[in-house]
Amino acid sequence: MRIFFAPFQIALLLALNLAASSVWAASPIDVAVSIPPQKYFVQMIGGDHVTVEVLVPANAEPETYEPTPRQIARLSKADLYMEIGVPLERAWLKRFTAANPKMVVVNTARGIERMPMLRHDHDHGAAKGPGLDPHIWLSPVLVRIQAMNIRDALIKADPAHAADYLQGYAKLAQKIDQVDGDILQSLVDHPLKQTRFIVFHPAFGYFAAAYGLTQVPIEIEGKEPGPRQLGELITFAKNNNIKVVFIEPQFAQKAAKTIADSINGEVVTIDPLQEDWPAGMEAIATALNKALR
C-alpha cells in the first residue's frame, strides 16, 4: 500500500527534522582533560562546540592527584578524553573507560617522541633517569602536534563543524607561533650568562630543550633529596654562580629553601600548569631570563 503525505504534513516533518538537527548541533561535545593547559588548547580549537572538564586542579600535583567522586561522575558523561601522558592517566584511565565505555580516548601525544625524565648528577648537573617526561605542553613545537591531534579528534567526533575546528586550530597555531617567537626574541635581546637552572621538580625539560637551556632537578625520582644530594646541589650551585632556585607552586618549598639559603639566593615560583598557556609560558620565560642574565 502506498502512503501519500499532504504538503502540510511534509512541511511539518521537515521542520521537526531540522529542529532535531539543530538541537544536536547545539549540544557541545563533552571533553575531559587531565591538566589546565589542555583546557586552553581544546577551547581554542573547539570554541562554543565543546565543554571541558579538567581533572587536576592548578594547585595539585598530576603525579599524585586522585579524582574526586564528583569528577568521576562527570566523566561518565564525557564524549572524549584527551590523554597527554601524565601519571594520573596511567593510574586511572582504565577505570574511567570501564565506567564510560562510550568515551573515546584521544592520544594527543601521538607523533611525539618523549625524552627521559632527568635526575640530578653532581658532576654535570643533570642525567637521564627512569621513565619518560610527560611535560610536553611546555614546548611550542610539541604543542603544535598536540593541537593537530585535538583538531582531528574533534572533527571526527563532530564533522558538521569541521570548518570551525579548522579555524580554531589556525588561531591556536598563530598564538603558538607568537609565544615561541616572543620567547626567542627575549633571549636574543637579553643574552644569558648562565644556561643551567635549578628546579625542584624536573618539569621543564622540553622548555629547556626548546631554548638551549638545561634544568637541574632537586627531586630524585619523585622523592625529596637526602642530605648528601642536597650538599651536592649546593656545591653545584656555588661552583656555577647560581643564585635562584625555582619551584612549582604544587610542591613544598623546604628543600628549595635549604639550597637557596645556603647559596645566599632566593626561591622563585614558576608554574607549568597555568590554564592560560601563553601567559604561563611567558611567565616562565621572564623568570628564567631574569635569573640567568
Note down, in words, how this protein is organized.
The chain has 293 residues and is an alpha/beta fold. The protein has two domains: 144 residues, Rossmann fold (3-Layer(aba) Sandwich); 107 residues, Rossmann fold, CATH 3.40.50.1980. It has ten helices and ten strands. It has a four-stranded parallel β-sheet with strand order 2-1-3-4, with helices on both faces. It has a four-stranded parallel β-sheet with strand order 8-7-9-10. Strand 7, helix 7 and strand 8 form a beta-alpha-beta unit.
| Terminus-to-terminus distance | 87 Å
CATH superfamily of the largest domain: Nitrogenase molybdenum iron protein domain
Structural class: alpha/beta
> What oligomerization state is this entry in?
single chain
**Overall mean pLDDT score?**
88
Biggest sheet record: 4 strands, parallel
Helicity level: 40-55%
Contiguous helical run count: 10
Signal peptide: 1-25
InterPro entries: AdhesinB, Bact_metal-bind_prot9, Lipoprotein_PsaA-like, ZnuA-like
GO molecular function, one term: metal ion binding
Keywords: Ion transport, Signal, Transport, Zinc, Zinc transport
Question: Descriptors for this entry?
Answer:
293 residues, alpha/beta, Rossmann fold, 4-stranded parallel beta sheet, 10 strands, disordered N terminus, transport, zinc, ZnuA-like
